[in-house]
Amino acid sequence: MADLDKMANVRIDGLQYSNYDRELFEDLITAGLHTIHVTLAYWEDARQCMTLFSKWNRHFIDHADLIMPVKTGDDIVKAKELGKVGIVFGAQNCSPIDAELGLVQVMNDLGLKFMQLTYNNQSLIGAGCFEDEDPGISRFGKNVIAEMNRVGMVIDMSHSAERTTLEAIDISSRPIAITHANPTTFKASRRSKSHAVLKSLTQRGGMLGFVLYPLFLKDGADTKLEDFTEMVADTADKYGVDNIGIGSDLCRKWPYEVVEWMRNGSWTHETVYGEGGAGVREWPKQPHWFQKSSDFFKIEKGLVKQGFHSTEIDKILGLNWYRFMDESFKPA
Description:
The chain is an alpha/beta fold. It has a single domain, classed as Metal-dependent hydrolases (TIM Barrel). The chain contains eleven helices and nine strands. It has helices at 22-31, 46-62, 73-82, 103-110, 139-151, 162-171, 195-203, 225-239, 256-264, 296-305, 310-328; strands at residues 12-16, 35-41, 67-69, 85-91, 112-116, 154-156, 177-178, 207-210, 244-246. The strands form two sheets. Strands 1, 2, 3, 4, 5 and 6 form a six-stranded parallel sheet that branches. The two termini are 16 Å apart.
């Protein structure tokens, strides 16, 4: 691990999903972000992920002055030193490994360093948060968790159901992550995380990334910055400041059809709108104070007003994620 004093002001967003182009990469630079976790896949299988990796290879060539791939903690250090934004890939489902255990290492070697065991539905591994029943981790899932632990791919339970999440925390030999979710005390939602989950997660050294996606904010797009940072403070009081960060889930420059595809994939002929089937045919509107990556500094100002001191703010805005990634990306 690099000198933590040297990395104290590192800034990391634990989850984004945007239709990236040079304008958005420049906005990441303006934001002062050094690394972001980018969603590579939702429903895509292994072959489709190859095309997505190839698209990003072109980004790394065409925008080499702005971005670089990240597979290790040392890569985060390098990105910071070079003034670039490091890109870590993740999947919001286990679809990239099909039903083949050996593909965990293949995807990891290509740079997929985070993988959710489920999206909103039941997977071959466990239950998503919108399923009516939650049988927990499957036999296949136990093998996948062990293999992810071995190669250094982070287990992400952001969209998973309660029992499945608790079992994953217990089964995993390494700390896991919930990259983008908020406590149920802030927003009552099937996607929010209970005290039992957050206590178990943080006691085992796992990471929680607070999400800014409006469906999971207290008052949606009308949520105030003060409400958000108060939630951060309350969580820090309960579970400590060393295992929390930001996972904004910022989504930009996508047409409406993409959010519909995210929710529906190919598993239903009926259209699901928003959480629990309610919503309108448009992307959820962001709060006015967080419209783009370069609004990241506003979170810092909000944390100052909540009484956090500079070392705590550095942890929440990036250092915790850096330490977690640096250790988690290493093979066991």
